[in-house]
Amino acid sequence: MTRGFVIASIVAVALAIPLRVAAHHGAAAFDTGKRVTLKGTVAMWVYSNPHCLLSLDVTGEDGQVVRWIVEGQAPNVIFPVGYRKDTFKGGDQVAITVEPVKNGRPLGRILQAVLADGTKLGAATSPPSNAPVTPQQ
Amino acid sequence: MRQLTRVLGSIAGLCVAASAFAQNSSPGGWLTPQWDKPPITNANRKPAPRRSLAGMWGPADGPGAGTQAQGVPAKPNNGKPENQLPYTPFGLELYRSHKALEGFDAVLPSEDNDPRNRCEPLGMPRENHYNVRLTQIFQDEYKIAILYHYDNRWRIIWTDGRQLPKVVDGGVEIAGELRERRFFGYSVGRWVDDYTFEAQTVGTMPDDRVWLDSTGRPISDQVRVTETFRRVDNDTLVWSETIEDPKVYTRPFETMRLPMRLHDPRTDVMEYYCSPSEQEDYNKLFGNGASGKGAP
Q1: What is residue B292's predicted lDDT score, i.e. its pLDDT?
Q2: Is residue A128 part of a domain?
């Protein structure tokens, strides 16, 4: 593990990830248009309805570890994007770009995931109409 | 001889059907939905079968095209005047009493009163407007059955010539008896021509049980839902809907015109359901916090 990875960072970036989110349990809570990239260690991946949930521990610049919980849509919705029951395992080092909630809590929804092996997956949301739905390698 | 010809014809038909979907086979036989099908053109268009809606259908514009998160697609709930629904005073009051998680007047998670989040059946017509994805249609000489993906729900449209029940106070009247309201109502249908099927539904649940869409637009037990299924060609079905509900709306309006594409009948359909315990876990881990309430 590199120091750069262990000291996981939260980087607010204006990534060129298209934000075309088809909501299920509402978009009102999210800070629309804001992106945060979280680099951290997977604690838990729950592949369930109504939403899949990923929790990961992210160490900030002050050394404090913050547990983030980020959501994806239901399994059948994100399956075509490439998310599976075993996509994340406890201890995996991952980079997750999220749209955070407005109230400042460590919560958000997944716009992109870079897995431990470098595989990139797109937004864990309903694929937009006529969009490619294959995972990006 | 005629029978032998018919049998051979059926076998040939099955072979053609199998070869048409052969490109979608996968190891193990558990086919996943194929959403990136080539468009239907004059070169690959096959004629529609006569008087048949049978098949596994998915939104032609991709899996997200049936989500309808912003409300019925013909009138998205986006605050634009042209999409304002023609509410009666009662209908508007009802709409304002609904706290939806989607649409122009959306509230935060845990502040909503959407019956869906208590895992209530969506009922008619909302099941037509909630994450429509793989939808199976079966039919025999008496009925058409629609199997919805979400929450493994199904409904029957009778085609045997029976009459639509009369809507009365508290339910419907059938042969002089008062019968109960139903989440999916009472549906009958008929072939308008060899490729167009029309269904009517009445006798649905009252307005506190069923919404029109996920943005909280209301519907009442006085609604009459008219659906038209037009088999454009073998691979394309256009599913339209108009609602008439004098208690809630001053005039009828079209809610959707959704093109559906034929999928391989062997495609495996993943479950997509509402579970009270999983919903509770979700609220505990995420929904409440996103609303600024409780942990985390």
Answers
A1: 80
A2: no
The interface predicted TM-score (ipTM) is 0.80
Contact A26 B107 (CB under 8 A): yes
Nearest to B63 among A24, A101, A127 (CB): A127
A129 touches chain B (CB under 8 A): yes
Nearest CA in chain A to B59: A129
In a domain? residue A97 = yes
Establish if B43 belongs to a structural domain: no
Contact B278 A48 (CB under 8 A): yes
Spell out the long-range contacts of B155-164 with Cβ–Cβ below 8 A and sequence spacing 24 or more: B155/B124, B155/B127, B155/B184, B155/B187, B156/B187, B157/B187, B157/B188, B157/B189, B157/B199, B157/B201, B158/B187, B158/B188, B158/B189, B159/B188, B159/B189, B159/B190, B159/B191, B162/B188, B163/B188, B164/B188, B164/B200, B164/B202
B290 contacts A68 by C-beta, under 8 angstroms: no
Question: pTM for the whole thing?
Answer: 0.85
Within-domain flag for B201: yes
Residue B113 is assigned to a structural domain of this protein: yes
The residue of chain B with its CA nearest to that of A71 is B286
- Name the percent of chain B lying above pLDDT 90: 81
Chain B residues with beta carbon closer than 8 angstroms to that of A69: 285-286, 289, 296
| Count: domains in chain A | 1
Distance from CA of A74 to the nearest CA of B (A): 7
- B32 Cβ under 8 Å from any chain A Cβ: yes
* Number of structural domains in chain B: 1
Is B241 inside any structural domain? yes
- CATH of residue A106's domain is 2.40.50
pLDDT digits (tens, 9 = 90+) for A16-55: 333 334 445 677 889 989 999 999 999 999 999 999 999 9
Q: Do B282 and A25 touch (CB under 8 A)?
A: yes
Supply the range of the domain harboring residue A20: 3-121
In a domain, A20, yes or no: yes
